């Protein structure tokens, strides 16, 4: 390897929140001040306003703000009557099929609503849940108890919704979108959040649309599901202190909603900047002659399905000798991250699901090869050049 320390003249952070805040500082601070003056801190008018704006952005009639993306996943399933908080009331254990290559909340939310997670492998090109793998499960003995499929729009690209919609028609099941990383993404022009029976978004600070803390959102086209979710997020209450069922405290803070509504106005431009940066990364890697069709041939660049509008929550490559490359970049103060190093079926806490190494080879290969590079709207072209030059030097 070449000593690149002289040619790499600057650190490149994985994410720099200060750049975005600098652009919208006064709008955000004014929005926060309005909440403070109103003294309506939880489920105040700013929450209602943001819910309406988010519903419009997602082309759905209903949006329900909540405390986190994890809660949004639980709310989406619980409001659709999937599972039960009491296993004795659900002896058949409703099953939900999802991906083993996702953040832990995708599976933990299924367990929390009293359902049983069933896993199926991913499409190795998009990293999203494979419809063919899902249908194989549906056609197996496990398929009889499946009530819903939970595809994840990983890294900001929608799952193959044409295929999942066809599965829904053939098997009479619910489709719940894990759209935590995909606000502003679309499939055949239909926004994420409007594709399934319900969808869950996260506004964790690293997301494309991000709060100044935890926050989440459920979207749906169903008035009954919307109503049920609103009850569940407030301890099962429709009327104060009258609890119709066992819910949870998952209300959205007004300050977070106010911040999110400011940012929502900028999001289309920010997402386009991410797409432009992704295209520039592609060009830089190809110009450096680093790319290949597999990791045996070189770096594998992200694939965008032509039916998808990708929002590049992450720019993720497959890299030969991934762990050594990441350490090399770290030594040069160049940010990177692995999403995700251990597939869910191999997590210690989920061993009781009964899966073993080798059950989902595409997910396991991805976990060993993927590397996310710096990606945010304010990233500069010279910083991208620094990242690619460092990677070129590593493989030299």
Walkthrough of the structure:
It is a single chain. The strands form 4 sheets. The protein has a 7-stranded mixed sheet with strand order 1-9-8-5-4-2-3, with helices on both faces. It folds into 2 domains: about 20-265, Aspartate Aminotransferase, domain 2; about 265-395, Alpha-Beta Complex (Aspartate Aminotransferase, domain 1). α3 (about 70-80) crosses α4 (about 105-110), α3 crosses α7 (about 225-230) and α9 runs parallel beside α12 (about 380-395). β6 and β7 form a beta hairpin. It has helices at about 15-40, 45-55, 70-80, 105-110, 130-140, 160-170, 225-230, 255-265, 265-285, 320-330, 360-370, 380-395; strands at about 60-65, 95-100, 115-120, 145-150, 175-180, 185, 190, 200, 215-220, 235-240, 240-245, 310, 315-320, 370-375. It is globular and about 65 Å long. Helix content is about 40%, strand content about 15%. The model has no long low-confidence stretch (mean pLDDT about 95). The protein has about 400 residues and is α/β, with parallel strands linked by helices.
Q: Compute the separation of the termini in Å.
A: 5 Å
Q: How many domains is the backbone divided into?
A: 2
* CATH class group of the largest domain: Alpha Beta
Our count of helices gives: 12
Keywords:
396 residues, alpha/beta, Aspartate Aminotransferase, domain 2, Aspartate Aminotransferase, domain 1, 2 domains, three-stranded antiparallel sheet, 13% strand, globular
